[in-house]
Design goal:
The structure is a homodimer of 200-residue chains.
Chain A: H1 7-17, H2 24-36, H3 41-55, E1 57-58, E2 65-66, H4 72-75, E3 80-87, H5 90-98, E4 104-108, H6 126-134, E5 140-143, H7 149-162, E6 168-171, H8 187-195
Parallel strand pairs in A: 3-4, 3-5, 5-6
Antiparallel strand pairs in A: 1-2
Helix pairs in contact in A: 1-2
């Protein structure tokens, strides 16, 4: 009874089930939902899959996702080209942009070093970062990978490669989040907050 | 910053986020996954959406989903055409088939009466069931809607419509599940199990 539903429906269920975090039951629910959509909406969804694949590529400078030749940040005349903020994922660029503080450029690694998940330095866009820095325009690289074991290891690995190039390499400051409550801060964060204490 | 990602990627994220049970964050994760798929796989997924929509329709007799003119069960010469098992959803047919006990035909309502969700009798395939029964071949209708408030209400509603037609109308037996432990049976199930007790 493996193929109890019509073949094309089974195929659609298989498609959804192959996506990360979607189990068999959810895949069934999603497939039935697709069948229940009004004329045109399922077609629009399928088209959005194809168009995203067709149009989105990585920016040759910062490796962020873009539809243009260069991404909007790399092609903007208003950004400081001497500072580069290194992040793991395209969504991290969004987080940093929200702070409205950073005016430099980005470099997206597309992952973090993780021996557990078999992600090594060669799987990330590190070569491309070194090439950029070798260009000579960059004075500072801010490592803004996640404050977890993998992000820390990635930041450490890259900073060792960059140090000999005689540029400033910094790491995002860690500490208790603004507006939060000390009571709920975890030990590791408090430790980092104490280490990172400043004169007042 | 609503459209921070490239337009076609935002569009794909919107598409996933419009599916039931998928939030904004999951939609982002799924969209990035689609972009990371090897050549051809994203296309295959998009095609599976289109093909399922194109090929799958409801069987004109039992209303189950099928790609053929009649569904395999309705077109089988080995099924007892005098007994019809009424279920809410196509997946329920699969559950009953797994028991290998039932040899009759099905009727899929595509839902259950639920005033809360604004699903009334006219939203279900009840008319089609009455037409089938009026055909005269059917002797018994087994109501196999879910053993919950909505399923019970639906079974009750339909049985009232069928009774005047002088056929047997039965409801699936309720009780403690085989292989389960009494300790974990809920009160409502135990009540139904006592009501449905049999001589031994």
């Amino acid at each position: 009874m493996a193929s109890f539903f019509p073949a094309s429906l089974e195929n659609l269920i298989d498609g959804f089930a192959s996506l990360p975090g979607i189990g068999r039951k959810s895949a069934q629910r999603l497939a039935f939902y697709i069948l229940s959509l009004p004329e045109g909406e399922a077609e629009a969804f399928a088209r959005s899959v194809l168009e995203a694949r067709e149009r989105v590529h990585t920016c040759p400078v910062c490796q962020n996702l873009t539809e243009d030749e260069l991404c909007p940040i790399c092609s903007s005349p208003n950004r400081d080209r001497s500072v580069v903020c290194v992040v793991s994922e395209p969504r991290d660029v969004l987080s940093i942009e929200r702070s409205r503080e950073f005016k430099g450029l980005y470099h997206v690694l597309h992952g973090a070093i993780s021996p557990m998940n078999r992600v090594g330095p060669d799987d990330l866009r590190i070569k491309e970062l070194l090439t950029r820095v070798a260009g000579g325009e960059i004075r500072e690289v801010i490592m803004a990978t996640n404050p977890d074991a993998e992000g820390d290891a990635t930041a450490m690995y890259i900073s060792r490669l960059l140090k000999p190039l005689e540029i400033r390499v910094t790491r995002l400051g860690f500490g208790v989040p603004v507006g939060s409550n000390l009571e709920y801060a975890d030990d590791a964060t408090l430790l980092r907050a104490l280490e990172g204490r400043r004169e007042m």
